Amino acid sequence: SAIYELSCEAYKHLGKTSNYYWIDPDGSGTLGPLKVYCNMTEDKVWTTVYHDLQMQTSVGGNSPEKLSVLQLNYSASMDQISAITSSAEYCEQFISYSCKMSRLLNTPEGNPYTWWVGKANEKHYYWGGSGPGIQKCACGIERNCTDPKYYCNCDADYKQWRKDSGMLSYKEHLPVSQVVVGDLDRPGSEAKVSVGPVRCQGDRNYWNAASFVTSSSYLHFSTFQGETSADISFYFKTSASDGVFLENLGNTDFIKLELKSATEVSFSFDVGNGPVEIVVRSPNPLNDDQWHRVNAERNVKQASLQVDQLPLEVRKAPTEGHTRLELYSQLYVGAAGGQRGFLGCIRSLRMNGVTLDLEERAKVTPGVKPGCSGHCTSYGMYCANGGKCVEKYNGYSCDCSKTAYDGPFCIKDVGAFFEEGQWLRYNFHSPGTSMKDLVSRTLLSSADPEITAPDLNLNKEELSFSFSTTKSPCVLLYVSSYTPDFMAVLVKPNGNLQIRYNLGGTKEPYNIDIDHRNMANGQPHTVNVTRNGRDIVLQLDHYPPTSYSLPATSDIQFNSPKALFLGKVIEIGKIDQDIYKYSTPGFTGCLSRVQFNQIAPLKAALRPTNASSHVHIQGELVESNCGASPLTIPPMSAATDPWHLDSASADFPYNGQAIGDGVNRNSAIIGGVIAVVIFTILCTLVFLIRYMFRHKGTYHTNEAKGAESAESADAAIMNNDPNFTETIDESKKEWLI
């Protein structure tokens, strides 16, 4: 049975993030698994296969040879890559030719000087950005070549460097296995060739599905050829308690898969020694309208059946007797021969490595509909942090718009680095509208419909964010109002955190002080504050939540909220003295995934959304995940890592060791030594500066006695949390590849 998934698409639907994975595009067929890079973007999944040709490979330079042949060796066989390209919706490969007195295709009539060899060893005379049968480069199609007489920049034969590049996207011709360069035999002729990895997107087989609407409906296909070995896999989803998935008959031989009851799947066959049945019993009902995977295999030695991750059921074949499965009838998917057929959805049905096109056949069959709906019941749990699962015809996606996160599963923190004096204001109502502005009212209120007071007073708030800073005091977040009411999260001069509420009815604002923990220690901290009427629950980092209560005299409505500030408080009118003091000169450090009820101010500032009109920024806000809490950072993927060069978009020298997991030992040791030296110098500098300014400062940092233990508690998370150490290792690995 397959230990690897069939494609990157399958890994995405197990909730996996971008990384290298082993895939097995033809199941237990002859191809075997291969390692690819899966890049999971918001709405697409890209499968990338690398080769060993360096970017900008030089050819020529007075070489006597007439032709120079560049061979590309991939991390997979041509058949394996063909299996990926044939099931993909779209594939592309970047190709670039930089030339100095070296012509590329020359004229549309003449023979081309340079060509590339693709799948099945065919020669191709078109270049990146153009298409089959058109002997042109991209500039020839866009009509902006260096010399309008020619259809490629290089064909102008100039003595200066020129370039022709673009995407090859006719997937039936990919991948590029050779580039043959011809115009190099004149003095001064030089050329450089770059070819990117093959990138494919989508998997038509994975979502190829049909819905069986009546219990007598079926699809039929030609006879299944599985005489000595049969490998059948598919996904099903149903609310019915029984039904036949598929059946193929012979004279006496047969093969059949069915749902026998709500908890039993049966695989039965007869090769001439009498019928054999293997049953897998599930502890939970299988008719729960969720996707379940079935994998049945039979060969001359044994037969097996697996459902989801339940234990594999195996039956050995008799040592004597018949071994060949001889079938004559058509293969029926659904109701066969008057039996009660399957009601529900079957998708990605593969028989001996070939995906049956259920969708096409369903289009012309009464009682069966192409495609399937309701993927969110199975996959919605992967949309994290309040992301909403959205049904798509082939699959689903996560809508992160009401969250402070983005990425395919709403788990990527959106954060920024604030320099001293930078600030962000989020106005709760749009400029030029009344206080009754509806958009803000719905976003500001928690998800509860009852909060629709005409001038919007809040009885409850939910606030969550993470931050890191080394400077105290500062104001991390401040919510102002059209009344004296406000809410603030501060770091006091001694580095301790304070939550301050002023809702009226009390002489002084109500403060929650978290003593004995220095929060200005440069490490990421998470803060979650929930208020419901008088009750406030605060959770800090990984510590257990603590409950507080507003004083009995305090008002419990936050009246007419006006704006939310990050970095610094710039508000007209009377302002709390401490807040004014702590807010100067401003916050320095990182804030991440800030969310106040349903408003995500940082995300609105950094991602253009319909809420962006509410945001005003002072200074240049730099996106960064430096404030992201270590408990949520996944290992940095090549897609997000600024040090990982994307070879398709840049002509950088590109290391052929893209797939090697091993990191060069020497460079790792040298890198480590340099890092230690730099770190020591920095520590010494910090110590000296702190020592010099210690007596000049306007206040002393009288840290509370328990601060040391908090430092070690932070160190403890970093040491104990596997994700955090993995992050460091992963990113180091990326740098050194």
UniProtKB/TrEMBL annotation:
Subcellular location: Membrane
Biological process terms in GO annotation: cell adhesion
Entry GO CC: membrane
Entry superkingdom: Eukaryota
Domain Laminin G: 208-372, 440-626
Membrane topology of this protein: Single-pass type I membrane protein
Domain EGF-like: 373-411
SS bond list: C345-C372
Keywords assigned by UniProt, alphabetized: Cell adhesion, Disulfide bond, EGF-like domain, Glycoprotein, Membrane, Repeat, Signal, Transmembrane, Transmembrane helix
Domain Fibrinogen C-terminal: 1-51
Family from the record: Belongs to the neurexin family.
PANTHER family, per the entry: CONTACTIN-ASSOCIATED PROTEIN-LIKE 2, PIKACHURIN-LIKE PROTEIN
Name of the protein in question: CNTP2 protein
Organism: Cnemophilus loriae
Phylogenetic placement of the source organism: Eukaryota, Metazoa, Chordata, Craniata, Vertebrata
Gene name of this polypeptide: Cntnap2_1
